[in-house]
Design goal:
The complex is a heterodimer. Chain A contains eight helices and ten strands. Chain A is α/β, with parallel strands linked by helices. Chain A has one domain: 3-Layer(aba) Sandwich (Rossmann fold). The mean pLDDT of chain A is 92. Chain B folds into two domains: 183 residues, no CATH class; 120 residues, no CATH class. In chain B, helix 2 packs antiparallel against helix 8 and helix 8 packs across helix 10. By secondary structure, chain B is of the alpha+beta class. Chain B contains twelve helices and ten strands. The chains are: A alpha/beta, B alpha+beta. At the A-B interface, helix 2 and helix 3 of A face helix 1, helix 9, helix 10 and helix 12 of B.
C-alpha cells in the first residue's frame, strides 16, 4: 500500500466492518477493509455481486457509516458523523456518477449540474457560471437546456459526470458508469473519466467488469467482504485508442 | 441552502404537475371561499340588524312588564299586569330629568280611503312620540299635546300608506278611516325602507288616548324613556325602577338599546362563528387532500430525494422543500379562495337582498388558517421525505 509514497492520501479506511440485518438475518457485508486512495490516482474496486463491493462504495461515498473501523477523508475522521454532517461532506468532497445516471427528470442539464451547488450555498449567478463550465468540459456546451429525456444515454452520463465535477470534489466515485450504456457510449464515458484523471482528478471506479477495471491504474479486488488482492494494472486500456479501433458509425 | 432556493424548487415541482396541483388546491379554494362567503353573510346580517336597532333612536330605555322581558318590540307577553298611561305620567313626574316619557301602544288595524284600504301597524304614543320613533316627518306635523289630551282623531302616516291610499295626491288634510272611524291626516313620514325591524313605512301614528278608545284598551305595551345624555343611562334606569317599584315591585324590566344590541350581537356573532366553523371543516378536508397528494408525491419522488441527498441535501433542505410545496398549494389556494369568496359576497349583495360584509378579520383568518393547514398537513409527508435513507432512495424504482 505504500508503494506510492509520494501523493497525499485523500481517503483511507482502517479495518472497516459493516453488518446489517436483512429480514432478521445478520449480513456481514464487510469484514475489515483497509485501503487508501491517493490524490490524482484512478482506482478500480472490483468484485462480483454479493462481494460487499456496493457496501464499500456506500462507505467510501459517505452514504453510510461503518459498524466499526475508521474512515478518514482529507484528514478528518468521518466514521461517526451524523447524516446531516455526512451530507455536507458528500457535497464538498464526493462526486457521484451512477449506473442509471440519476438525473432529475424534466429538469435541464444545466439545472441538474447546478444541483450540488445549490446545497453548497453558492449564489445563483456563480452556480450558472460553474455549471456551464462543467458542461463545456464534458462536451455538452450546446445541450445545456436539454432535459434528460432529450439526451441520449451517453449524453446523460456526461451530464452526470459534469454534476460530479462541478463542486471540485476530492473524489469522483463512479459506480458501474457504463452499465446502462451501449459499448460506444461506454467507451466514450471511460475516455472522459481517464481524461479527467489525467487532469488530476481522483477517480474511484466501482465495477464487476474486468475490462472496465483495466481502465484504472490500480485494481482492488473485493471478495466475501474483504480485499482479496490489490494490483497495479500493467496493461492499462486507453479508452481513446479503444474508440479509434471501433468501426465508424453514427454515435448516439 | 436558503429559503428562496427551496421556494424555487417547490414552485418548479408544482408547475411540473399543473393539473394535480390545481385539483389539490381546489379543496382549499372551496374551503376558504366558503369561509369568506358565509362569514360575509353572517357579518352583513349582523350589521344590518345592529343598524336597524340603532335607527330606533339613541339614548332610549324600554320599560316592559314581566321580569325577564327581553323582547325589543315591547309587546307584552303574559305578565300579571300591563302598564297604563298613568304609569308613564308617574315616571315623568318622579324622574323629571328625563327628556321624554312615552307610553306606546302598538296594534294592527285597517285603514281605508275611498275604495282603497290596507293593513297597517298602528303606533300610538303621546305628543313626545316623535322624539323616540326613528321616523322623520316629511311633511305636515305630528299630533299635539292638546290632541292627545282630547283623544282627537288625527293621524300621521308612513310613506307607503300615503302612496297606497292617496296616489298622486297630497294626503295632508284628507280624511281616512281607521277601524271605521274618520281620522284627519296631519303629517307624512319620510320613506325609511324596510328593515329587519319591520316595515316602518306601513305604520300610522295616532295619539295613544285615541288608540285606547278605538281599540277598547286601557293599557300600553311599553313605556319608552329618553335620556338626554347617554352616560346617564344606567343612573336613569335605576331612577325609573325606583319610581315604579312601589306599584309593581320587581315585576317589570327596564332595558336599554345597548342591552338589546348586546343580546342580538351575541346571537348573530355565535351564528357567524358557527357558519365559519362549518366552512372551516371543508377547509380541513382540503388540507387532508394536500396531505394525501404530498404523500403520493413523496413516494413518487423517492429517487429524486435520493439524488438530492447524494449530492448533499441535508434533512432540513428536503423538509423545507416539501413543506414549502404544501404551504404554496394551500396559500395559493387560500388567495384564490379569498378572491372567489369576496367576489361571491359582492355578487350576492348586489343581486339578492342578502346583505354581506367581507370583514378584514375573516380574510386574515382564512388566509392564516389556509397557511396553517398547509404547514400542518405538509409537515408529515415532508418529514417522511427528509428521513429517507439515500441508499434506499437511490435504489427505488
Amino acid at each position: 500500500m505504500n508503494q506510492t509514497s509520494g501523493p497525499r492520501i485523500v481517503l483511507s479506511t482502517d479495518q472497516v466492518v459493516k453488518r446489517y440485518m436483512l429480514e432478521d438475518v445478520e449480513v456481514q457485508a464487510l469484514r475489515g477493509v483497509s485501503l487508501a486512495i491517493h490524490d490524482g490516482e484512478m482506482v478500480a474496486i472490483m468484485g462480483p455481486s454479493g462481494s460487499g463491493k456496493s457496501t464499500l462504495m456506500h462507505i467510501i461515498g459517505l452514504l453510510d457509516h461503518p459498524t466499526s473501523g475508521r474512515v478518514v477523508l482529507e484528514g478528518d475522521d468521518v466514521s461517526s458523523l451524523s447524516p446531516n454532517e455526512l451530507a455536507t461532506m458528500r457535497n464538498k468532497h464526493i462526486g457521484f456518477v451512477f449506473q442509471s445516471f440519476n438525473l432529475l427528470a424534466r429538469t435541464s442539464a444545466l439545472a441538474n449540474v447546478e444541483l450540488p451547488l445549490i446545497y453548497a450555498g453558492v449564489s445563483s449567478t456563480e452556480r450558472t457560471r460553474r455549471a456551464r463550465e462543467a458542461l463545456e468540459r464534458v462536451g455538452l456546451g450546446n445541450r445545456m437546456g436539454h432535459t434528460s429525456s432529450q439526451l441520449s444515454g451517453g449524453q446523460q452520463q456526461r451530464v452526470a459526470v459534469a454534476r460530479a465535477l462541478v463542486t471540485d470534489p476530492s473524489i469522483v466515485l463512479a459506480d458501474e458508469p457504463t452499465g446502462n450504456l451501449d459499448s460506444r457510449s461506454g467507451i466514450e464515458v471511460m475516455a472522459m473519466l481517464q481524461e479527467l484523471n489525467a487532469q488530476g482528478i481522483t477517480v474511484v471506479l466501482v465495477t464487476h467488469d474486468e475490462h472496465i477495471a483495466r481502465h484504472a491504474q490500480r485494481v482492488l479486488r473485493v471478495f466475501d467482504g474483504r480485499i482479496q488482492s490489490e494490483d497495479m494494472v500493467t496493461d492499462r486500456i486507453d479508452a481513446v485508442a479503444e474508440m479509434r479501433a471501433l468501426p465508424e458509425e453514427v454515435t448516439g | 441552502m436558503n429559503l428562496l432556493e427551496s421556494f424555487r424548487i417547490a414552485m418548479r415541482a408544482l408547475a411540473a404537475n399543473k393539473v394535480r396541483s390545481a385539483l389539490t388546491m381546489l379543496g382549499v379554494i372551496i374551503g376558504v371561499a366558503a369561509v369568506i362567503l358565509l362569514v360575509a353573510i353572517g357579518t352583513g346580517v349582523q350589521d344590518e340588524v345592529t343598524g336597524s336597532i340603532e335607527g330606533m333612536g339613541s339614548n332610549l330605555l324600554f320599560v316592559v312588564p314581566g321580569q325577564m322581558g327581553s323582547g325589543m318590540s315591547g309587546q307584552a307577553s303574559a305578565p300579571s299586569f300591563r302598564f297604563t298611561i298613568q304609569d308613564a305620567t308617574l315616571v315623568a313626574r318622579r324622574v323629571p330629568q328625563l327628556s321624554a316619557v312615552v307610553p306606546v301602544l302598538q296594534v294592527s288595524g285597517t285603514v281605508k280611503a275611498g275604495n282603497r284600504s290596507m293593513r297597517v301597524t298602528v303606533a300610538a304614543a303621546n305628543e313626545q312620540g316623535g322624539s323616540v320613533f326613528s321616523a322623520t316627518l316629511a311633511k305636515g306635523r305630528t299630533y299635539r299635546k292638546s290632541e292627545v289630551s282630547a283623544a282627537s282623531r288625527v293621524m300621521a302616516i308612513g310613506s307607503t300608506v300615503a302612496s297606497n291610499l292617496f296616489p298622486n295626491q297630497d294626503p295632508i288634510g284628507k280624511t281616512l278611516a281607521l277601524q271605521g272611524q274618520r281620522f284627519t291626516v296631519v303629517g307624512i313620514y319620510a320613506e325609511q325602507g324596510g328593515g329587519l325591524g319591520g316595515d316602518q313605512d306601513s305604520q300610522v301614528y295616532i295619539p295613544v288616548t285615541t288608540a285606547q278608545r278605538l281599540f277598547n284598551a286601557n293599557y300600553v305595551n311599553t313605556i319608552v324613556v329618553k335620556v338626554d345624555n347617554a352616560d346617564d343611562i344606567d343612573r336613569m334606569s335605576a331612577e325609573v325602577k325606583r319610581a315604579l317599584k312601589p306599584r309593581y315591585g320587581d315585576e317589570f324590566t327596564v332595558f336599554s338599546q345597548k342591552q338589546t344590541l348586546g343580546i342580538l350581537s351575541t346571537l348573530l356573532g355565535t351564528l357567524t362563528y358557527m357558519l365559519a366553523g362549518i366552512a372551516g371543516i371543508s377547509l380541513l378536508v382540503g388540507g387532508i387532500g394536500i396531505m394525501n397528494i404530498m404523500l403520493v408525491s413523496v413516494s413518487e419522488r423517492t429517487r429524486e430525494i435520493g439524488i438530492r441527498k447524494a449530492v448533499g441535501a441535508r434533512t432540513y433542505d428536503i423538509l423545507s422543500q416539501f413543506v414549502i410545496e404544501a404551504v404554496s398549494l394551500s396559500v395559493l389556494g387560500g388567495i384564490i379562495g379569498i378572491g372567489i369568496g369576496a367576489g361571491g359576497a359582492a355578487l350576492l349583495a348586489s343581486f339578492t337582498p342578502v346583505p354581506t360584509n367581507v370583514s378584514m378579520w375573516s380574510v386574515a383568518l382564512a388566509f392564516f388558517f389556509a397557511f396553517g393547514v398547509g404547514v400542518f398537513f405538509g409537515v408529515y409527508p415532508a418529514y417522511k421525505a427528509s428521513k429517507l435513507d439515500p441508499i434506499e432512495a437511490l435504489r427505488y424504482e
